[in-house]
What we know:
The chain folds into two domains: 199 residues, NAD(P)-binding Rossmann-like Domain (Rossmann fold, 3-Layer(aba) Sandwich); 91 residues, Alpha-Beta Complex (UDP-galactose 4-epimerase, domain 1). It contains nine helices and 13 strands. The longest helix is centred in the last third of the chain and has 25 residues.
Amino acid sequence: MRVLVTGGAGFIGSHLVDMLMARGEEVCVIDNLSTGSLENIKQWLESPRFTFIKGDLLDISDLGDYDIIFHLAANPEVRVSSESPEVHFQQNVVATYNLLERVRGSKTDVVVFASTSTVYGEASKIPTPEDYAPLKPISVYGASKLACEALISAYAHTYNFRAVIFRLANIVGSRSRHGVIVDFIRKLRRNTEELEVLGDGNQRKSYLHVSDCVQAMLLGLEKAQSRVEVYNIGSEDQVDVRTIARVVVEEMGLKDVRLKFTGGVDGGRGWKGDVKNMLLDITKLRSLGWRPRLNSLDAVRRATKELLADDALQQMGRGKS
Length: 321
């Protein structure tokens, strides 16, 4: 199959590319490299089955024809939305509209979209199933992703292609460049005696390793039956931010680190729009035969080890240059 991955040089995108290439697909990646890196896909750059396009969905006229499009290009920073809402409107909503306009009239059979658990907002039902309603995002990021879902659904029904939408929990692992684990590592690199923790530390969320996430996406795509299919992807349990801080401290080999809690906003949230309690109901995907291999705590620990190894490799590279 001819497969396009938008944002394919980024965190989740590059892991998806690895699996698609391993399966023998013909893969094209488009990425503006604002948060992604060629380092993430360097092993495929010389392959005759792989093409890389440095480009931006906000300014692109033609993408060509693909059997499947995985749309992962987006600005992933939830915190940005409270300060610069236009960023998420442009990079998420407008970029998705531009992509769908290129899909309209093309030979694309399926558009796969990486959405987010934040579309549910402060769900009253935990774990939260795909049919939960009404959807009331509390961040502009969540609202932008929900807007993208609506556009994709409308285009799929109007222009006769299929769509598979994945609502992701917090995905962690190597190559990640944002999120709580990355923030903690960066802070502890600067100060090994004290770690600032945003909020009250009691935020409880689902964390899933990126390898589990990619496998779930490919299975969901394979099994999807409806014109527009929606799946939750996450772990079956939660871990709180206080525990994540302790794991990062341990894995960095540090001792006697003081945890400094900021207290946060709106009842202990890390920032405006931070969903304090999140756990997705993954019954739908489990019924298809998928189950995460790692729980939230194990995923966080493995991701921390991987990110520290990434960081060590980057420092070695800078030392040689």
